[in-house]
Each structure stands twice: as structure tokens, then as C-alpha cells.
Design brief:
By secondary structure, the protein is of the alpha/beta class. The protein folds into two domains: 2-73 and 179-190 and 205-276, HUPs (Rossmann fold), CATH 3.40.50; 76-168, HUPs (Rossmann fold). Helices cover 31% and strands 15% of the residues.
Length: 288
């Protein structure tokens, strides 16, 4: 079972559509279910109407998801329960450090492990992370390992403003939805060992992972974050999908771009090979 989990911080761009297509094809080519989850947990970043616009664009491009769309904003009780279970085992401590106080640190230095440095100030809930490497094999990027303690230190699972962190929410939600294969952008590759570590602590299953290369501008910015980013155009859906199939190394025939949407998806499902997806692109892509 696969899933696509966009943040409703804007319209669906080519970069996000490309990731969604990879996830969709990987699930459907193997006869699996495909779910959609709206990651609207970070309320200050949510753009009104973006979630419904994203869903409408997915439908216009022929994506068909199973079951109801999950919204993270409706699941805070589940994240709180997971956090409490870790706290009961002595794995959580409160930290009063602000973002500005940690701005010069490459990792959390353990400042508040013995108690908040500024009692009475707002606190974040941090997970005690001990040294030790987490390893997994990505289906596209290959073997990946990380010492989470050395890379980021004690992870914040609830922020000082009370919002739950992505790393906790995604782990809880993937388990709740029964997601067995995660296909997403390679910008999240180094976040994956942190999720695996948390899955193990919570006794949750670890899905398989496949991280597709990220579409970027010449300056290295993600295409979806760029001012020049190309929005998904439902009126040109088949041609844009065929461009995406090319980026996924499927090499669709030229005539497919002038055909019907259903035929394009049918062809792509029949030719999907995750092993053919490039680990990285040799040059920046501009979505044109």
C-alpha cells in the first residue's frame, strides 16, 4: 500500500505531481492500494483552499485514491498518545531552547536534558536519542545509514508552539493507514533513519522506502518551491504526465502524449520499474 501526503501550502506543482505519479505507479503496478493524506499539521503554513485545490488537480490528472482522505489536523490526539507512551518510558524531556538559541548549532547539544534551562518558558518535547547507527536499504538510493544522535541529537517531537513535529506525525499516520511502501522525494532521505528509529521505539512496522530524485532549479532549490515552478495544468494533463514518465525513465512513445488520459496511465502501469528510476539527475530540471 502506498500513499501521497502533500502539505497544503500552495497549488500542486510539477515537482509534487512527479512524486505523486511515482508513488501511484508503484502501488498500482503491484495491485496495491493508494492513499492520500493531507499534512496540514503546521497550521501557519496552510494556505486556505489549497487542500481542495490539490485534490481537484489530482483528480483532473486521473489519480484515483482508495478510501477517505486523511487530514493530520484531525489526528492530534493520536500524536499526543504516542508522545505520552514515550514519556512514560522516560524517553521524553522538556526543552526551553528557542530556535534562535540553537541557530548556530549543527545538532541539538543536549542543553535541557537535565531540565528546562529557562523554567516557566514555553517548552518543546524532545526524544532522548542515544548514539547508534540506523541503516536501511532504499529501493532507489541503495544502502543508507545515519547516526541520528550525531546528525540531529535529541529530536523535537512537539514544538514550543504546541504543534507536533512531522517526524512523529508521519510515523504514526503511516502505521495507522497500513502503508507498506513509501515513495517520495530524496530530500526526505536523511529524515528516514529518524523515522525508522521512532518506529522501533513505538513498536510500529517500518515500510519499504524509495526516494526519487528531486526536481531542482539551477541554484539547487526544489522546483515546487521556486518562483518559476510550473503549476500542474489539468488542460494539458496527458502531455505533462508523459513528461513525468520520461523523468521516471519510462520512455513513453511520442504518440502517447496526444492520446487519452486513461491510456497514458494504463501504459505507465504496465511499464513501471522502480529499478529504472535514476538515483539523481545529471543536470537541473526546469519543468518545461
Amino acid at each position: 500500500m502506498g500513499r501521497f501526503a502533500p502539505s497544503p501550502s500552495g497549488v500542486l506543482h510539477l515537482g509534487s505531481l512527479y512524486t505523486a505519479a511515482a508513488s501511484y505507479l508503484d502501488a498500482r503496478a503491484h495491485g496495491g492500494r493508494w492513499l492520500v493524506r493531507i499534512e496540514d499539521l503546521d497550521a501557519p503554513r496552510v494556505v486556505p483552499g489549497a487542500a481542495s485545490a490539490i485534490l481537484a488537480t489530482l483528480q483532473a490528472f486521473g489519480f484515483e485514491w482508495d478510501g477517505d482522505v486523511m487530514y493530520q489536523s484531525a489526528r492530534t490526539g493520536h500524536y499526543a498518545a504516542a508522545l505520552d507512551s514515550l514519556r512514560e518510558r522516560g524517553l521524553i524531556f522538556e526543552c526551553s531552547c528557542s530556535r534562535s538559541q540553537l541557530a548556530d548549532e549543527s545538532r541539538y547539544p543536549g542543553t535541557c536534558r537535565g531540565g528546562p534551562g529557562e523554567p516557566g518558558s514555553p517548552t518543546a518535547a524532545r526524544l532522548r536519542v542515544e548514539p547508534g547507527r540506523i541503516e536501511f536499504t532504499d529501493r532507489i538510493q541503495g544502502r543508507f545509514r545515519q547516526d541520528v544522535a550525531a546528525a540531529v541529537g535529541d529530536m523535537a517531537l512537539r514544538r514550543r508552539d504546541g504543534l507536533f513535529a512531522y517526524v512523529l506525525a508521519v510515523v504514526v499516520d503511516d502505521a495507522a493507514q497500513g502503508v507498506s511502501q513509501v515513495v517520495r522525494g530524496a530530500d526526505l532521505l536523511d529524515n528516514t533513519p529518524r523515522q525508522v528509529h521512532l518506529q522501533r521505539l513505538l513498536g510500529l512496522p517500518t515500510p519499504g522506502y524509495a526516494h526519487v530524485p528531486v526536481l531542482t532549479e539551477a541554484d539547487g532549490r526544489k522546483l515546487a518551491k521556486s518562483e518559476r515552478s510550473v503549476a500542474a495544468n489539468p488542460y494539458d494533463a496527458v502531455r505533462q504526465l508523459c513528461n513525468i514518465f520520461n523523468l521516471l525513465n519510462l520512455a513513453p512513445p511520442t504518440e502517447l502524449g496526444g492520446g487519452k488520459l486513461d491510456d497514458a496511465w494504463r501504459w505507465a502501469r504496465a511499464h513501471w520499474q522502480v529499478a529504472a528510476v535514476p538515483r539523481r539527475f545529471s543536470s537541473p530540471l526546469r519543468g518545461e
